[in-house]
Amino acid sequence: MYKFFFLINPVSGGGQGKVIHKFLPEIMESMDFKSDDWKAEFTRKEGMDEQILNALASTETLIAVGGDGTVSSVFSIMLSSEYASRVQIGLIPLGTGNDLARVLGLYKPFVDRGLLYLVRRLLLAKSRPFDIWMVNGKYALANYFSAGIDARIAHDFNHDRATGVISSNSVVANKLHYVKRFFADRAYYLKSGRISMIDRDSEFVENMDLTGHKTVIVGNIPSFASGANPFFKSDMADGYLEVVCVPNMLNFLLAIAMGGVPVLGYFLKKYLLKSRKVRSLTLDLADNEYIQLDGEDLSGKVGSRVKIDFATQVRMLSLEE
Predict the structure, then answer these.
(1) Residues 222 and 144: beta-carbon distance below 8 Å
(2) What is the distance between the alpha carbons of residues 151 and 140, in angstroms, rounded to a whole number?
(3) In order of start, what are the domains of the chain with their CATH numbers?
(4) I need a surface site. Which of 53, 107, 176, 220 has the fewest CB within 10 A?
(5) pTM of the entire predicted model
(6) Spatial distance between the Cα atoms of 231 and 255, rounded to a whole number of angstroms
(7) Residue 274 banded pLDDT, cuts 50, 70, 90
(8) Alpha-carbon distance 4 to 138, whole Å?
(9) What is the helix, strand, coil percentage profile of the chain, to 5?
(10) CA distance 258 to 228
(11) C-beta of residue 92 within 8 angstroms of C-beta of residue 106
(12) How far is CA 139 from CA 22, 36, 214, 311, in A?
């Protein structure tokens, strides 16, 4: 049984995963870990689910090295296995948004002090509880889910990357391309939609017509779209989701730009955006609606009805108290 198992996405962050893999032996030896205390593998496109399952079965702590999508793949496998209560999960952020790393206190040390410093800190970190949700009984939701303009942007970004329009793996280049996609897709809105939410008392069901809205955002963590926070008093381990239904572009821009501003952000999220705490929800959308889950494009993969329920709680390594 390994103390640590590193699953490394070799292409994330412009290939920085390969740098981590190269220096891991030196780092682990400097911290008095023996060679049989840990293992590192590059993720594989083919057979990745089996690879994750084997890693979970052979370690006390699995560390995903990559973007939010890499760790989300781990969570999805944990939903259908017995390892949620036994294996701790760590994250070394090499993606574009890195929203989960931000709320776990991992992103700032990474930016300020570098990857190697973060690895050393993470290996000594304590874990904290973290909610995982299930989308249509299949997909794990760790960070957020959305349908609308932001999901359309994510879809077009992923299409551009897959077709070679984006030729760089640079985080900065990716963010600049996201801005370009925003201006290209700014007129998009939900053609039809309805949401049914069970509130925090598990008694009252609230229904809303979302037709014509710019987006609906469902959050598990207080970070969205590379650090924005449109949610009111979000907590990643309280058994609740935060739901923000955004009717127009002005509200969308305010949510992204002003949500984290003290005082102003508080009133914005409570009274203008009206963030709601819910235990579960059902979304009925148009058949061709754009959908994203933890930054990954799910358009056309989950159908027009989306149901989100609590799944389990895991332990995440965190540098936040």
Answers:
(1) no
(2) 17
(3) 2-124 (3.40.50.10330), 144-311 (2.60.200.40)
(4) 176
(5) 0.87
(6) 9
(7) confident
(8) 27
(9) 35, 30, 35
(10) 8
(11) yes
(12) 32, 33, 24, 10
